[in-house]
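Q: Hi! First time doing this. I have a protein sequence and I read that you can turn it into a structure. Is that right? Here it is:
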Amino acid sequence: MSFHYLIALLLLNSLSAQADIYRWVDEQGRLQFSDRPPSQQHAETLELEPLNRYEPDEAGREGRPLTEGRDYRAEEKADKARRKAQRLAQEKEQKQAQQRAAKCEKARYDLRLFSAKPYGSTSLEAMQKKRQRRDALNDRIKKYCR
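A: Yes, that's right. Below is the predicted 3D structure, encoded as structure tokens:
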């Protein structure tokens, strides 16, 4: 029987771990806190909020597992694919710009060579062909250089 009394006493002692906290001002005007009320003065009992404020989200309350929701791996994979597509598009634009600059430079070079050649023949037909060629080179310059 004494063993049962010992267990009951230990259980009652563990309940006192959830004791109230008391606050009062002593004779020197200092604020005092204790887990036991003062014997000669009136003390105010403080009600403390719980330290753990965890509340499950709505998914957990509805019976769904808490793991449902955002798939961070899929988001990261999609973000990586988007960045790769942007990088490839930029590289493609740069390559096209370089090709365009090279074609522009080639068209200007061809026009300079063409303009440097002396007239070979002064016939009307030769002059028309030369003018058509010059216009074609100017059109290439307009197309690639602007």
